[in-house]
Amino acid sequence: MFLDFFYLLRARGLDVSFNEWLSLIEALDKGLAGSSLTNFYHLCRAVLIKSESQYDKFDMIFAEYFHGIMSEDDLPKEFWDWLSEDTRLRDINDKKMLDDFLLELEELLDRFKERMEEQKGKHDGGNYWIGTGGTSTMGHGGYHERGIRTGGEGRHKTAVQIAGERHFRDFREDNVLDIRNFQMAFRKLRQFSSRVEGAKTELDIDATIDETCDNAGHLKLVFDKPRKNTVKLLILFDSDGSMAPYTHLCNRLFQAVSKSNHFKDIKVYYFHNCIYDHLYTTPRCRRGDWIDTKWALGTLDSEYKVIFVGDAAMAPSELLRPGGNSVISLFNEEPGIEWLTKFRKRYKKAIWLNPIKEQYWDDMYGSHTLLKIKEIFPMFELTIDGLEKGIKKLLVK
After folding, report:
1. Distance, CA of 272 to CA of 251 (rounded, Å)
2. Helix H segments across the chain?
3. Residue 381: its pLDDT value, please?
4. Listed residue (38, 45, 72, 43) closest to 61, CA to CA
């Protein structure tokens, strides 16, 4: 049953196992979806989808597979003329279901085709023909909870309509991040924080829940010593050039970091394409608005967690040769890749966030330098999923 739907889910990247599909079939055999495609939609999502981050992808696949059920092109023109005229209206609560029987999807579609061949004129208020305002399983403006709506305004939302509205776009793991997403991800770095010596004044929510459950549901508050921020973070942004399209995204990341109170210290510097003798103090990367890179490496201790943000795309000479600095008159004796290697040796907890989707890394412009840098730093997409993975990498002891 609907085996092509199973294959489509797998082909579009959803990890649906055969056991999960058999569970869905078992649920259908037990009548848990009835004859409603909408119930089938909710049942599929409950049984097959493991995370809300996959809801949007599921909705798109569902709408793709079942869109034909709502097709309006199969009706002859005269049907649309009948259905578009004024209709009789009844109280929506008047639901005397004269056609109250369960139909399999295939049977319902067959019956719909039969009605199209039989019907010779307009019909309103009935329980058999394709019409308006009636209790038939086909037509529009009527009072049957199940069936095929043909035109008109839907009074009971259908599964394809629900899926097509895609209410779960913001749950996707491959979405670019907003400020709150950044803040929530950075909050996980609090695991590096230590407890302050002194009174237990901070509510421990997890322990409170456990103790309350053990206490037969009677609230039992648990307190712990407050945490002291011990996390030091160094963020280095690639600015301008090929990073110009990602300015707003990087700005959101900067704002999230600036507003965060989870860190003992935060340092933010900028570079253009690659790091050389200087780190800029503003995203404009102007001459003189900088600090010496050697000073930063010598002054900022190895306890800093380092995050590079950039597309890692540049001319090979900018990364691999002396004098590769694209800024005229700023000749670098040491190639950029050597400076990056120094950062890797100095800071064991360092990652690279790339705003370009990973699927393009191997064949995009600048892929040669990107892959070279990827050999030095663990590289992740600048998405919700990518940042989560990057933060976990920083948390590994």
Report:
1. 16
2. 3-11, 18-29, 37-48, 55-66, 77-84, 105-118, 159-165, 179-186, 205-214, 247-259, 293-299, 316-320, 336-346, 367-376, 384-395
3. 92
4. 45
Query: Could you please report the per-residue DSSP string of 217-253?
Result: T-----EEPPEE---EEEEEEE-SGGGGGGHHHHHHH
pLDDT tens by residue, 127-152: 666 656 566 555 555 545 445 555 54
From the number of C-beta atoms within 10 Å of its C-beta (0-12, 13-18, 19+), residue 290 rates as: middle
Residues 262, 244: Cα–Cα separation, whole Å: 29
Q: What is the DSSP code (8-state) at residue 371?
A: H
Q: What is the dihedral of CA 348, 353, 354, 360, to 10 degrees?
A: 70
What is the tens place of the pLDDT at every residue in 147-196? Answer: 555 554 444 456 666 656 655 554 454 555 555 666 666 666 665 555 55
**332/323 Cα distance (integer angstroms):** 5
The C-alpha angle with vertex 192 and arms to 190 and 195, in degrees rounded to 5, equals 85
Q: CB 78: neighbour CB atoms within 10 A?
A: 12
CB 25 within 8 A of CB 81: no
What is the predicted pLDDT for the residue at 92?
42
